[in-house]
Amino acid sequence: MSAIRRAYLALALICIIWGTTYTAIKYAILDFPPFLLVGIRQTAAGLLLLILAFGSGKIQMPERRYISRQALTGLATITGGNGFVTWGMQYVSSGLAAIIGSLTPVLVVLLSLAWNGKERINGRLVMGVLLGFAGLALIFREGWQDFVRPEYRWGIAGCFASVFTWSLGTVMSKQWNAPGVPPMLNAGIQITSGGLGGFLMSYFFDTSHEIHHTTRGWLSVAYLIVIGSALAFTLYMFVLKHLSATVSSLYSYINPVVAILLGWALLGEALTPWEVAGMAATILGVWIVNSKRE
Known about the structure:
Layout: H1 3-28, H2 34-55, H3 64-88, H4 94-101, H5 104-115, H6 123-139, H7 150-176, H8 183-205, H9 215-242, H10 245-248, H11 251-266, H12 273-290
């Protein structure tokens, strides 16, 4: 199997895994302050990856400048991208957070153009992006009223801040990740740096640092550490190595679909014809973009 095909397979796994993390975060923030959760989750996952990377004995320590750039990327992607959405989900539903996150591919395109103009835009990509948004609008057509509720405003602001910082980190990764450096090492440096940033944000912004020790809470954190961060982010580094930043960010279209299906299968939530039509349009939009491979 070629590297490009493996990258698309990794992207498919990311779509599923990161779609489930919204539910896991919702459970975890019932027992953990949001930024403290980010610090615990991401630092543990990053250190795990660094131990595995250097434990193989085949990886050499990169130069200081490279490490600094990876750390800066981690602050954007993890501290900002993951931190702000975790904080925002105290006040908004996981579905609303996911649909705001679907702005990522568009913002990645704009930031890539602003960075160096190398990201290619064509009519097929634009059509796929627009169709994806149309599908999401159908899925959440009854949820837009959440935007006008006062208690959701800060949560919405946090989710939008997450989209911007995650998109910026995606572009930085695409520009700065060296081809010869294993994705696991890049992920380890970025996640560890981002996790440490989460602890710093917790000191300033978490209103409480108390943890309620429950089985559900710690199981959610364990899932987020091992699957949601360590595994999925390593896959994401591999995807960014072989696919464009724009295509790499298309998982954000699938995440809301996964959330709806989980709600239907596990929680007994309704799956309406509008939601089915929206999922079909979203998946078609992703196919249109991916069918025109680089």
